[in-house]
Design a protein that fits this description.
The structure is a single chain. With 457 residues, the chain is α/β, with parallel strands linked by helices. It folds into three domains: 203 residues, 2-enoyl-CoA Hydratase, Chain A, domain 1, CATH 3.90.226; 125 residues; 58 residues, OB fold (Dihydrolipoamide Acetyltransferase, E2P). 47% of the residues lie in helices and 16% in strands. The chain has a six-stranded parallel beta sheet, with helices on one face. It has a five-stranded mixed beta sheet with strand order 12-15-16-14-13, with no helix packed on it. A three-stranded mixed beta sheet has the order 4-6-7. A hairpin with a 3-residue loop joins strand 9 and strand 10. Helix 3 runs parallel beside helix 4, helix 12 runs parallel beside helix 14 and helix 13 packs antiparallel against helix 14. The protein is elongated, with a radius of gyration of 40 Å. It starts with a helix and ends in a 23-residue tail after the last strand.
């Protein structure tokens, strides 16, 4: 009896100790993965496009919802769209979580739109050997400085951001008006950035203990020395969009897709060119969906496609092909708005190649229409045959009834062995004209002839 009680007490004690251990483990695990000890990290490489703007706005929302210590945006960009830049700046200025922009790795840059985005962060950091600045707006068509009106607006915008974040206002304005750019060490001396960090680990150490003010005048003190970093990457769809968000690629896809469809129209049933053309056009319009398209440029692009197609149906001295080439070149120059543009070294050769291709397609189509038919009933016009004993002819693997050309119906049929030439096809009857004299059929005359054999005497 005593042994049984001791055994029960031991089992109960074991269960209690096990439960306590599980609770302690869960608590430790929960503490280790507490959102307050995590930092969300994302990266931007390349131009600032609507895709990047959407991704960074989502990253801000993710950091806010997850109660992260901070959002670190590692950046290396030559600039990008003004509209996309302003979307990013609005997201950063309105964030309820500290936003840190880190220009990295060494050799990276935060140029043009990237500089303004860096100024808008709560904390701006740079790696050694990086640069920031050169934010002068560029005219999309000429490649030169934009008008004074545009520059004044951009300078005022940079000044307001630098003032709100407590940065060097003169430097921010100079990056716009003078195109000024400075290395990391000089930017730190000027007060354009807050710190220089050699890598991500060094950055987290230097961020620890800093106090920043986020949206709503809320003060946050960073505790990042031992924080865990969580990567926030672009979705596959956004990566594809960002890859295609290249004006040169968009123009090439649209141009080559149009040429491929022209060849499909020239030679219907040649599925390869048709399928290729449709795929390229879809990719081209996919790219246009994330780029600032000009109505005038799009109209010129459609006009070029119409002129190239007209060359197929009215080939002559190439007027339509030349007009399409000029229209396509102009479309390349005016297709996009803002700082986005197609390189002249891309759209000029492309326009010439597409024009020559449409001219060749028109010539091939014209020759194909003039060539004699090779299939169908019309293909038998001009063919010759010999009338068989039954008064019909064997042609193209089939027996045909024949009638002399110009003779009224019901006249005496053509004699067997008469060579004839087909001049027309009337339903299942060939209209023929005699050629030369009647041939005497031999024992092995035409496939339908019958030869009578005399009986042995």
């Amino acid at each position: 009896m005593v042994a049984v009680r001791r055994s029960g007490y031991a089992a109960a004690l074991f269960v209690l100790l096990t439960m306590a251990a599980l609770v302690a483990s869960a608590a430790a695990s929960g503490a280790a993965s507490s959102p307050a000890d995590r930092v969300l990290v994302t990266r931007v490489d390349g131009a600032i496009t609507p895709v990047v703007a959407d991704h960074l706005a989502d990253a801000v929302h993710q950091a806010e919802r997850g109660d992260y210590q901070a959002l670190i945006v590692e950046i290396d960009t030559p600039g990008g769209l003004d509209t996309s830049m302003r979307e990013v700046v609005q997201a950063f200025l309105g964030a309820h979580v500290p936003v840190v922009v880190y220009v990295s790795p060494s050799g990276a840059r935060a140029a043009s739109a990237g500089a303004i985005i860096t100024f808008s962060a709560n904390i701006a950091a740079m790696a050694p050997g990086t640069t920031i600045g050169a934010a002068t707006p560029i005219d999309a068509q000429t490649g030169e400085k934009a008008s004074d009106k545009v520059i004044n607006d951009a300078a005022a915008y940079a000044e307001s951001i630098a003032t709100q974040r407590g940065r060097n206002v003169d430097f921010a304005v100079d990056t716009v008006r003078e195109g000024r750019a400075e290395p990391a060490t000089e930017a730190l001396k000027l007060g354009a950035i807050d710190l220089i960090a050699t890598d991500q680990a060094d950055l987290l150490t230097k961020l620890d203990g800093r106090t920043v003010t986020v949206a709503g005048d809320e003060t946050r003190t960073l505790h990042t020395a031992d924080a865990t970093t969580v990567e926030s990457t672009m979705s596959l769809t956004r990566k594809l969009l960002q890859l295609l968000a290249d004006p040169n690629l968009a123009f090439l896809f649209l141009s080559l897709g149009t040429l491929a469809l022209i060849y499909e129209f020239a030679y219907p049933g040649h599925a390869v060119s048709g399928i290729t053309g449709v795929i390229l056009l879809i990719l081209g319009f996919f790219a246009l969906s994330v780029l600032p398209v000009s109505v005038a440029g799009l109209a010129l692009l459609l006009l070029a496609a119409a002129l190239f197609a007209a060359e197929l149906y009215a080939p002559g001295v190439g007027v339509f092909a030349v007009g399409g080439t000029i229209s396509l070149a102009l479309a390349g120059a005016f297709l996009f708005e803002g700082s986005v543009r197609v390189d002249p070294l891309v759209f000029l050769p492309t326009a010439v190649v597409i024009g020559l291709g449409s001219l060749l397609a028109g010539r091939l189509t014209w020759r194909a229409r003039r060539a004699p038919p090779v299939t169908g009933a019309s293909a038998m016009v001009g063919a010759t045959a010999t009338v068989a004993a039954q008064g019909d002819v064997f042609l193209e693997g089939t027996w045909w009834a024949v009638t002399p050309a110009g003779e009224p119906a019901g006249d005496e049929p053509l004699p067997a062995g008469q060579p004839v030439r087909v001049v027309a096809v009337d339903g299942l009857t060939l209209v023929v004209e005699p050629l030369g004299s009647v041939e005497q059929p031999g024992p092995t005359e035409s496939p339908g002839s019958v030869t009578e054999e005399k009986p042995d005497v």
